[in-house]
Amino acid sequence: MKKCDLAIVGGGPAGLAAAIKAHELGLKDIYLLERDNFLGGQLVKQTHQFFGSHKQFAGTRGIDIAEIFKEKLAKREEIKVLKGAVAQGYYEDDVLGYSYNNSFYKLKPKRTILATGASEKMLAFPNNDLPGIYGAGAVQTLMNQYGIIPGEDILMVGAGNIGLIVAYQLLQAGVKVKAVIEATGSIGGYAVHASKIRRAGIPILTNHTIREAKGKEEVEGAVIQELDDDWQLVAGTARELAVDTICLAVGLTPKVDLAIQAGCQMAYVAELGGDVPVRDDCLQTSNPRVYIAGDSAGIEEATAAILEGELAAINVAQDILSDRKELIAEDKTTREKLKALRKGPVGEHVRKGLNKVRRNEDAGKDRYSRSWKG
Amino acid sequence: MRIKNHPILDFARDREITFYYNGQEIAAYPGETIASALHAAGIRKLSTSSKHHRPRGFFCAIGNCSSCFMVVDGEPNVKTCVVEVEEGMVVEEQEGRGDLSEKM
Amino acid sequence: MLEKTGIPEAGKVKNSLPSKERLKEGPVAVFECFTEIPCDPCYYSCSIGAIKEFEDINDLPELDFAACTGCGKCIANCPGLAIFVLDYNYSEEEGVVRIPYEYSPLPEEGEKVQALDRSGEVVGEARVEKVQNSKSQDKTAIIWLAMPREQILTVRNFKRGED
């Protein structure tokens, strides 16, 4: 069994930022495990320019941010980057098991940063299992990573940022977007994204839900219907749209399997997308050897994920290399950047969510009591 | 259908390869996943569900949800949304749960 | 309503415009950025300092119309594609709207297109006067659309003829 200072699970924005920062701060013995055969996570399909701070890639397209990170990582040859390595389990003795090239390996890291990302949520409606119903991320993967359109005519369900951005990307790929529907009374994503597709003639229908998908072997249509302010169907408003694809952008939920295995105290926080590990301000979970960063710590966006990855790495460096002055300063500035990013009205739900997972005696106690770390 | 004209992206498609889906020859490009290459050929149904025998396609395309399982070169339960297509690969629609008994 | 349809209200649009006098003086940028989001690249894109530095990254951008020369450098730097340049007196008869455009293929200079308003409705015809697509724009092209000058306050997109 190999030992190392730091293992990072996940090579998306949080994991890449963590690996580079940890190495920059002086940690040498780092493993980065990525289950895909490529690095970058979901960045590799983000064709739009990022928002956020100019100093943290705003104005740069996600696909280019992935390249910048890959270049930075390649210069740090000491980091052991394993592509196609699937972390299979985190065991009671803090051993991380992973499969790689058809073999199983064990690794005992002094610290682990879990940056495992998220899964797309499903929505319950009749025939929601038909081929042609895809998560918004899946549509991005197909379209922007492999250059294949998901269909000719599409219905987008959900007007959060992902729904709006993917609708725009569908237009760019030459797909007809019949409508973007949103069950709540207002568009959840940034208004500029909404305006961009609206002026391309795409209707955004708030207070609308999907009733069912039509089709036998695959999607041939979708029935949508209006909702009133009490979420009740408005009689007589159901109508069928001729679409061959339905795209669900109804949210993400953190991937926390390894955190649960690591005995991290968990809490259900709707604002963060579901079950997440409770953590302190340094992103350390209730298992002191395990840190969490990015979407697996709570659904946000890539800029926050990058900063969280760096913050976790800085604190791991403090644990292992002792509290050097410059680490304390870096820790402070990174936290300030995160705070600034989350300060405005769109960061409100994240702030609310984070207040519920700050590590203390009671957080999440009602749901998970398992904690063998004491 | 493959995108030919894109304002932001260029797709490298220099070398064509061939694989088999239920015996049918399908053209693909290296780097494409099995499911995406099938999708480009208009094939969206990848398997049938075990209990109600309903058609299944992929859902997440990043290896999370297991909705894309197919039999690849005789091996069942292959996540075709993340496994890259290879020259001569034999891909078959999967019926229900994959039978692993032979492999064990 | 912006938060229900994606179409900004007339009042919001009006507040984002410079005075009539300034419009007539020459090209000027308008920011149709109406909700507070964490974003600041526009400030860094303006080489003459006409965009106020952000105190809080979530603040709405503030443009000094008097200082703005309408150079249009900010257009392709806005991740929200929410910046347009209006040129009321482009020629004797016409005004020009410069629009960020990320579709393929790009229109040809001289091409007649259908002018669309903020809801995507056809409101008239326009002519593609110029297509800017330099490397620094990073694939956000800027299309100069010439049209009857009273329409420059309405037109924010265009549609090419069906292929």
* Approximate helicity band of chain C: 10-25%
CATH topology category name of the largest domain in chain A: FAD/NAD(P)-binding domain
How can the largest sheet of chain A be summarized? 7 strands, mixed
What gross morphology of chain A would you assign? globular
Instruction: Outline the biggest β-sheet of chain C.
Output: 7 strands, antiparallel
Q: Strand-residue fraction of chain C?
A: 25-35%
**What characteristic shape of chain C results from the CA principal axes?**
globular
CA-CA gap between termini of chain C = 33 Å
Largest interface: A-C, 40 and 43 residues
What is the residue-averaged pLDDT of chain C?
A: 96
Helix content, binned percent of chain A: 25-40%
Count of domain modules of chain A? 2
**CATH architecture heading of the largest domain in chain A:** 3-Layer(bba) Sandwich
Strand content of chain A: 25-35%
Can you put this structure into words, describing what you see?
- The complex is a heterotrimer of chains A (374), B (104) and C (163).
- Chain A contains nine helices and 19 strands.
- With 374 residues, chain A is of the alpha/beta class.
- Chain A has two domains: 2-119 and 252-357, FAD/NAD(P)-binding domain; 126-248, FAD/NAD(P)-binding domain, CATH 3.50.50.60.
- In chain A, strands 1, 2, 3, 4, 5, 6 and 19 form a seven-stranded mixed sheet that branches. Chain A has a five-stranded parallel sheet with strand order 8-15-9-10-11. In chain A, strands 12-13-14 form a three-stranded antiparallel sheet, with no helix packed on it.
- The longest helix of chain A has 20 residues, at 302-321.
- Chain B is built from one helix and eight strands.
- Chain B has one domain: 2Fe-2S iron-sulphur cluster binding domain, sarcosine oxidase, alpha subunit, N-terminal domain (Ubiquitin-like (UB roll)), CATH 3.10.20.440.
- Chain B is globular, with a radius of gyration of 14 Å.
- Chain C has a seven-stranded antiparallel sheet with strand order 1-2-3-6-5-4-7.
- The chains are: A alpha/beta (374), B mainly beta (104), C alpha+beta (163).
- The A-C interface holds A 48-54, 58-61, 171-172, 185-187, 190-202, 204, 206, 303, 340-347 and C 2-8, 32-41, 43-45, 56-58, 77, 79-82, 102-104, 116-121, 138-140, 156-157, 159.
